[in-house]
Amino acid sequence: MSKRCQFWKDYDSVSGGISYCELAAFNQPVNPEFLIKIGCTEQKRTECLGTMQLNIGGAAVPVVQPTACNAPGEIAKTCVGAAEKKAAIAPRPLSVLAFLAGAYIAMAGILNTVITNDLANYFGDGLTRLIGGAVFSLGLILVILAGAELFTGNNLVMTAGLLDRKITFDQVLRNWGTVYFFNFIGSVTVAVLIYFSGIWKFNGTAVGIKAVNVALGKVSLPFSEALVRGILCNWLVCLAVWLSMSAKDAVGKLISCALPVIAFVAMGFEHSIANMYFIPMGIFLSGQEAIVAAIGTEALQGLTWSAFFIKNLLPVTIGNMIGGIVFVAATYYNAYLRPSPAKEEPAGKVKPTPVHHQHS
């Protein structure tokens, strides 16, 4: 039999000619992209398998070793495909999924507060931040694996679809507006539930004191700092979403979500949806006698709804949008999806005018 490819072997033995596929005979794992590159289609592998059975009395199909994760170019296409699906979600399920995302982020917020309320006394500030980020990553893990609509992640996805002209600007605004509003409702709902659950009374009200101090710190940030921390935060959050699209199994997605979130929490960046839980929780608790006694009335005066919306949520939301849209969606679109510009004549170069010869 004629040699089919570089891995097809023909040789003469005492019993006669033998032909076989080296990959199949030794059951070697093969990357599917490599098989495509050498023209080893499924039909050709079937033909080779039949030939091997005739020649050596048995055969094994080459083990196709799947790639561990999608390449960045494939992630970009997946991101655009996700944008089309999100744009097609009807208002009611979109609202429900957005509510759930806000609730999931809020649950991660209270977990962070409970775990870290006195951890610095034992491990210091840095390790406490690291552990706090690890437990807070639960929020994005639930959003990605359980399925929910998160405003900050959608800054990446919807922008990618818009830039690639697969969805309209109206669809983007509808998604962002609905998701942002119901993220807020979900976050505040969990804050109310936590308030009435009494969880904040744990460890001699240390959990509640921690929650109020976190809220105070957030509303005390200068506008510019809150803005920049918002940019850096969603740069990392959208990278977490981007990486999760590269993973091909649940474990890969979990790790992809966790690492960037751990980083942004440890570095003290600001996430608008998380703050929809943290600051209202602090406001709800600011009237409790034990907390007033521990923190002081004067310090608590700055913890108001107007301070929440104007001094924190506004700059952080703007920053989150810049981080997701500019530093992730736009950059990766230009790297992997933007069509190459058509070749143009160099500037200033004049095309020659054709000469028409007149014959007598």
Question: Would you kindly provide a written description of the structure presented here, covering whatever features stand out?
Answer:
The chain is mainly alpha-helical and 360 residues long. The chain folds into two domains: 8-64, no CATH class; 72-337, Glycerol uptake facilitator protein (Up-down Bundle). Helices cover 70% and strands 4% of the residues. The strands form two sheets. It has a two-stranded antiparallel sheet with strand order 1-2. Strands 3-4 form a two-stranded parallel sheet. A hairpin with a 2-residue loop joins β1 (8-13) and β2 (16-21). α6 crosses α12 and α10 crosses α13 (272-285). It is elongated. The mean pLDDT is 89.
- As a percent range, the share of helical residues equals over 70%
Per the CATH scheme, the topology name of the largest domain is Glycerol uptake facilitator protein
CATH architecture of the largest domain: Up-down Bundle
**Uncertain stretches:** none
Shape: elongated
Strand line-up in the sheet with most strands: 1-2
Mean pLDDT: 89
Alpha-carbon distance between the two ends:
70 Å
Q: Into how many domains do the coordinates divide?
A: 2
Strand content: under 5%
Query: How many whole angstroms does the radius of gyration measure?
Result: 29 Å
CATH-level-4 superfamily name of the largest domain: Glycerol uptake facilitator protein
CATH class of the largest domain: Mainly Alpha
The helix-strand sequence is: EEHEHHEHHHHHHHHHHHHH
> Tally the helices: what do you get?
16
Sheet with most strands? 2 strands, antiparallel
Which structural class should the secondary elements be placed in? Answer: mainly alpha
The number of E-state strands comes to 4
